[in-house]
Write a structure and sequence with these properties.
twelve-stranded antiparallel barrel; Porin; mainly beta
Length: 337
């Protein structure tokens, strides 16, 4: 097990530590910081929609996040075939700060690992217990890395060697269009992110191109469910210049969006559900893994450890099968003060 996996598992295990204070202050429910973790999608600049409220003057936010994605999908159609068998772990360190009136800026540095992983046996047993289809997992060897795409007899992607390294760094900004008031939890922000080609595209740590995303994100508290409940959502567009991964099939523009709702069910604990959508990154493919739009469902919540610190845990499933990983385990520590 490499160092990245050990650190990711430590993040996932933090809720068992029991280091909780005696009091906590509930705040509006905020979105999961999630997006499609498919090994052929996460290397582009798809963003998480983020919060509808930007940071106040003097506020800062630190986020350490782990996303462990288990992939197993096979497809064949016409002259195309694809196999995505492996585990992709993405560890992200992000910082945001107030940049002046109604403005927020941020920086996110990801560290990406592709490996055979260690979740295949667990996921196969999980599927057996709940009567879920294995999708070919039962016949495949455990903990193997094989990300492969063949078109017209030519292998365009063939990664079997495990590796890890820095991914594509992202710069971000946010502009508050509507700030919540004392008796009004509605908020609206315009956000943008710029992904730079700092990751190695030959190892699928980055795309080799520069991407720009622009989107609106909004939230509304209450919604007839009481002051502790919130609904939120966002939509926008990702613009991509040509990268190094399947450049002849890469689209230059895709839409994306999120919709979620949740509530603080205890003073320290919020539960939420979130749907994340993105258009297909690639064109001219009859394979769902490349050519179909994607929809994912995140289920989990946030646990407040202290006044300025919370953890976020979620399990992400592919609603549109084969367009995203079978399952993603998401965990984050957020400090905002």
């Amino acid at each position: 097990m490499n160092a990245l996996h050990r650190l990711s598992l430590l993040l996932l295990a933090l809720p068992a530590s029991g280091l909780l204070p005696s009091t906590a202050q509930a705040r509006p429910v905020t979105p999961f910081f999630t997006f499609n973790q498919s090994p052929l999608v996460q290397l582009y600049g798809l963003p998480a929609i983020g919060e509808a409220r930007i940071l106040d003057p003097g506020e800062q936010r630190y986020r350490l996040q782990a996303d462990i994605a288990s992939n197993y999908t096979v497809g064949r159609k016409g002259g195309e075939s694809i196999l995505l068998d492996g585990e992709t772990t993405r560890l992200t360190l992000a910082f945001s700060g107030h940049g002046g009136r109604n403005f927020e800026w941020g920086l996110a540095i990801p560290y990406v690992s592709h490996s055979g992983g260690m979740l295949d046996g667990f996921i196969r047993q999980w599927h057996d217990v709940f009567g879920l289809p294995q999708g070919g997992r039962a016949e495949a060897a455990d903990d193997v890395l094989d990300y492969r795409y063949v078109r017209d007899g030519q292998t365009l992607i063939g990664q079997t060697q495990e590796g890890e390294g820095v991914g594509d760094v992202r710069l971000s900004g946010g502009w508050q269009l509507r700030r919540p008031g004392a008796d009004d939890n509605s908020a609206l922000a315009l956000r943008a992110s710029l992904k730079l080609p700092t990751g190695d595209s030959t190892l699928l740590h980055g795309s080799g191109g520069t991407d720009l995303a622009l989107w609106l994100t909004g939230a509304y508290g209450g919604y007839g469910l009481g002051p502790s409940a919130s609904v939120y959502g966002g939509f926008g567009a990702l613009l991509m210049n040509q990268g190094d991964v399947l450049p002849q099939q890469q689209r230059s523009y895709v839409p994306f969006g999120s919709l979620g709702a949740g509530a603080w069910v205890l003073p320290r604990l919020s539960l939420k559900l979130q749907l994340d959508f993105n258009g297909a990154i690639y064109r001219d493919s009859g394979l769902a893994q490349l050519g179909d739009d994607s929809l994912q469902l995140s289920m989990g919540g946030s646990l407040r450890l202290a006044k300025h610190t919370r953890i976020e845990l979620a399990v992400v499933e592919d609603v549109a099968v084969a367009t995203a990983p079978d399952v993603v385990f998401h965990a984050a520590i957020i400090v905002q003060q």
